[in-house]
UniProtKB/TrEMBL annotation:
<feature type="transmembrane region" description="Helical">
    <location>
        <begin position="12"/>
        <end position="34"/>
    </location>
</feature>
<feature type="transmembrane region" description="Helical">
    <location>
        <begin position="40"/>
        <end position="59"/>
    </location>
</feature>
<dbReference type="GO" id="GO:0005886">
    <property type="term" value="C:plasma membrane"/>
</dbReference>
<dbReference type="InterPro" id="IPR003593">
    <property type="entry name" value="AAA+_ATPase"/>
</dbReference>
<feature type="domain" description="ABC transporter">
    <location>
        <begin position="107"/>
        <end position="340"/>
    </location>
</feature>
<dbReference type="GO" id="GO:0015421">
    <property type="term" value="F:ABC-type oligopeptide transporter activity"/>
</dbReference>
<dbReference type="GO" id="GO:0016887">
    <property type="term" value="F:ATP hydrolysis activity"/>
</dbReference>
<dbReference type="InterPro" id="IPR036640">
    <property type="entry name" value="ABC1_TM_sf"/>
</dbReference>
<keyword id="KW-0067">ATP-binding</keyword>
<protein>
    <submittedName>
        <fullName>ABC transporter permease</fullName>
    </submittedName>
</protein>
<dbReference type="InterPro" id="IPR003439">
    <property type="entry name" value="ABC_transporter-like_ATP-bd"/>
</dbReference>
<keyword id="KW-0812">Transmembrane</keyword>
<dbReference type="InterPro" id="IPR011527">
    <property type="entry name" value="ABC1_TM_dom"/>
</dbReference>
<keyword id="KW-0813">Transport</keyword>
<keyword id="KW-1003">Cell membrane</keyword>
<feature type="domain" description="ABC transmembrane type-1">
    <location>
        <begin position="15"/>
        <end position="71"/>
    </location>
</feature>
<keyword id="KW-0472">Membrane</keyword>
Length: 353
């Protein structure tokens, strides 16, 4: 957001500066012509030029203030839109464990259809899917297939138009949003960090975590050496230059892995990272999948190839489910995506659905 504001300010400031320079050149040219004809004194021309130079500062500041006002108006509109959104209601704490069916899967979607406001076409169409309590499930498909919408439905960011979502055999309708999300950990493609130290960012989702637990997660994501090399270690304040983008992504991943949740959801967590960062994230996924459930959206073959189940989506529907070798044999879309490079180890593609 900050970079976009800067990009908007720079062209406007350049236009104002160009206009001022043009005005000075025009005054100088017209004044020189009048002086040459003897119709204006040189001192008068100099006075006009001094006036023009005096106005440069206020005009530039005015252009910057106009830009700031416009940015403020745009921000106020977005804030008003956020304020108009309905507030999630939290009821009394629901004991999910007491209602749990031991034989039920972790998450189950039954004929779920989801539509966004203002859209005539559903983003998900009669989707049925079972997420077991352990293992790695990868979701792939072309842009607009409904992958992110599927994760948003599991996270209860959106409510199904029809169908049912169950957690441990208990329908979402019987649970409040807090009860659902306490069982989930989520990592987005654009992962924010909170103001404070590295330690505060890592334990943000699990404040009661011990130092041993924190160190174990950092080792898993290969962050321990980089953080120990900092002057204050875990107590180093996060700034724009203290850590690289890949390290910030791994901190967000560490925050999610540290959280005691039944399901880890990753939405393009490896889309914009280097090879070493991706390898660390893949190791964390594999380690977590041994004891819990992991669901990832990814366009990199290295991220999804070893998944226990790969879900291929198209046009809001589940097209096929299987492992990599099975899908290469029986699913044309998956095979075409691999061959065409849409599932490529060296290329990340952005999810826009």
């Amino acid at each position: 957001m900050r970079s976009r504001r800067c990009e908007c300010r720079q062209p406007r400031g350049l236009v104002a500066w160009t206009a001022i320079q043009g005005s000075i050149i025009a005054i100088l040219g017209f004044g020189a012509w009048r002086v040459a004809d003897g119709e204006m004194a040189v001192s008068t021309l100099i006075a006009f030029l001094l006036y023009a130079f005096t106005l440069m500062g206020p005009v530039s500041e005015l252009a910057q203030n106009v830009t700031s006002v416009q940015s403020g108006i745009a921000a106020a509109i977005r804030i008003r839109e956020m304020q108009s959104l309905p507030t999630e209601q939290y009821d009394e704490v629901v004991d999910v464990v007491a209602k749990t069916n031991a034989a039920a899967p972790l998450i189950e979607l039954r004929d779920v259809t989801v539509s966004y406001h203002g859209s005539n076409q559903p983003a998900l169409r009669d989707v049925s899917l079972v997420i077991p309590t352990r293992g790695h499930m990868a979701i792939v498909g072309p842009s607009g297939a409904g992958k992110t919408t599927l994760l948003s439905t599991v996270l209860r960011f959106v409510e199904p138009r029809s169908g049912e979502v169950l957690l441990h055999g208990v329908g979402y309708d019987a649970l409040d949003h807090r009860a659902v999300r306490e069982s989930l950990a989520y990592v987005e493609q654009e992962t924010p960090v909170v103001p404070g130290t590295i330690r505060e960012n890592v334990v943000f989702s699990h404040p009661d975590a011990t130092d041993e637990e924190v160190q174990a997660v950092l080792r898993l994501l290969r962050l321990d050496d980089a953080i120990e090399a900092l002057p204050n270690g875990l107590d180093t304040a996060l700034t724009a230059t203290s850590l690289s983008g890949g390290q910030r992504q791994r901190i967000a991943m560490a925050r999610a892995v540290l959280r005691p949740s039944a399901l880890l959801l990753l939405d393009e967590a490896t889309a914009q990272v280097d090879t070493l960062t991706e390898a660390a994230i893949v190791d964390a996924i594999n380690e977590r999948a041994r004891t819990g459930a992991v669901v990832t959206i990814a366009h990199r073959l290295s991220t999804v190839r070893d998944a226990d189940w790969i879900v291929v989506m198209e046009d809001g529907r589940i097209r096929n489910i299987g492992n990599h070798d099975e899908l290469m044999d029986k699913d044309d879309l998956y095979r075409d995506m691999v061959v065409a490079g849409r599932l490529d180890q060296g290329q990340a593609m952005l999810e826009d659905c």
